[in-house]
Amino acid sequence: MKTYDGPVSDHFDGLHFFDPDGSPPKSLGEMLRWQFDGRRQRAIWPDWAPSGHADTPPPRVDGDKARLSFVGHASWLIQTAGLNILVDPVWSERASPFTFAGPKRHNDPGIAFDALSGIDVVLVSHGHYDHLDIATLSRLAAKFSPRVITPLGNDVTMRSTDAAIRAEAFDWRDRVDLGNNVAVTLVPTRHWSARGLFDRNKALWASFVLQTPAGKLYIVCDSGYGDGRHFRRVADAHGPLRLAILPIGAYEPRWFMRDQHMNPSEAVQALADCGAQQALAHHHGTFQLTDEAIDAPATALGVALDEAKIPRARFVALKPGQVFEI
Description:
- It is built from seven helices and 14 strands.
- It has 326 residues and is an alpha/beta fold.
- The longest helix has 12 residues, at 296-307.
């Protein structure tokens, strides 16, 4: 697999990317220990769990408003300032390198692909299959030819499969003008990246701060919590934040997932750290990647908010097809 080739930096050693304030991903041996531990308690998800919602977005949203439609898992359509922006779009049936195996959808995308119109920009956070879906990116390229903004190295993955994908790769802290007074900045996040056994951390991962006329949106597609410094630094560098999109799922067992995925109580702490006025939850309820039950993240989020004395309306877990407007 072709990989990134670029200069050494404070988070790239010439071959692998790393987070100076993070933790390396778990080893293959630890992965096998989790998967085949006889004491493993993996919740059984229903084969199909429809959300009961489906969105047909308007062609455009103009002015100083923003419309956020939850597609499912970590996929969103954000409409603002006349631009249509997709985040980590996955319309495929499986989050996997295979069409016949791997995590399978438990509900339909909240927007039918044919209901999309005029996609201008796609943000892809990193190379894991539940975030970087080549089949979906190829469909988008063929229909809309959008700009695809992604961290370093993921452009190589995309173009090596489909040269029509207009991938543009950027480093942490790079700011990209998207037009219409909208810009996105890539910011460090506590995670990692791989698409196979031999390319671990050979492409970069990131979160996004999207500057819009409706305010700044902090989009965290995948992240562990750590000591919270990543979230506090975003508040310091980019605040005030109008809204944060924070992951709440794929967190069990904690010994394995803690460094890569937040649980709901950590997501509530991340909201406090970044100081966003409003938060939306994602990264749950569509693909079973880990051991918790399908409804556990949303239920635990409510409990964590109550314990932190934060109104539940400030941090909402939408279902695919539901819409939030600011």
